[in-house]
């Protein structure tokens, strides 16, 4: 543990602060974010077949983010997200200008192996991730390996920081966990610089209400 209560992993390129947001506040934030975020179901075509990302996602900040080959216009910061950004910045000791908010509706949602290495984040990005709601597994593997070298259960209020050359040496994943019935929200703060991404690629994403008012 460092002075700030951060557990250090993989040569200090992953740091985890358990309970960074206290439980009552984390629960209140989960409810507010669920209710107030204009969730987007990201739809795209793959080999002519319509696909949808297995999670809902929204971008905030000053710059478009290139995600799964699609470019999305970000929404402006809200007072709440600005406040959370300041907390993340203080611990990560950097400034962030972009945020991806993702909703894993239940254990059927997840994100497959990837690295956060889109050109806009620069060479060795510092990325801060805040989790709320259901606890989910976060796996890390070395590039070229099939098995994870690190498995973290990210719970409500946990802060995870990735930095150094981790995105070049490793990939990460939030696997499907069919036993999980509750939703999870994850916020990843990033710093985007350099040339703006290409013009928007055609996609059929749409804002969805979740949970559905009816259900
Ligand atoms: O949900 C998480 O903990 C990770 C999300 C992630 O890897 C990403 O947004 O790039
Ligand atoms: Fe990621």
UniProtKB/TrEMBL annotation:
Keywords (A to Z) from UniProt: Dioxygenase, Oxidoreductase
One annotated GO molecular function: dioxygenase activity
Fe2OG dioxygenase domain span: 95-193
Keyword Transit peptide: no
A Pfam family the protein falls into: 2OG-FeII_Oxy_2
Protein name, as recorded: Alpha-ketoglutarate-dependent dioxygenase AlkB
Organism for this UniProt entry: Nannocystis bainbridge
């Amino acid at each position: 543990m460092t002075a700030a209560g951060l557990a250090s992993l993989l040569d200090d390129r992953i740091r985890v602060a358990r309970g960074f947001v206290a439980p009552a506040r984390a629960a209140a934030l989960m409810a507010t974010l669920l209710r107030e975020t204009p969730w987007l179901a990201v739809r795209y075509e793959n080999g002519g077949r319509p696909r949808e990302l297995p999670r809902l996602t929204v971008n905030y900040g000053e710059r478009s983010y290139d995600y799964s080959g699609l470019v999305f216009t970000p929404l402006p910061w809200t007072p709440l997200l600005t406040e959370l950004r300041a907390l993340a910045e203080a611990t990560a000791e950097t400034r962030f200008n972009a945020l991806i908010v993702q909703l894993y509706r239940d254990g059927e949602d997840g994100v497959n192996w990837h690295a956060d290495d889109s050109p806009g984040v620069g060479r060795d990005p510092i990325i801060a991730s805040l989790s709320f709601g259901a606890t989910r597994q976060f796996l890390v593997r070395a590039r070229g390996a099939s098995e994870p070298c690190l498995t973290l259960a990210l719970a409500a209020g946990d802060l995870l920081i990735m930095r150094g050359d981790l995105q070049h040496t490793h990939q990460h994943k939030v696997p499907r966990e069919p036993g999980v019935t509750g939703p999870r929200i994850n916020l990843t703060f990033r710093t985007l610089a350099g040339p703006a991404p290409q013009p928007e690629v055609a996609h059929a994403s749409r804002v969805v209400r979740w949970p559905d008012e009816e259900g």
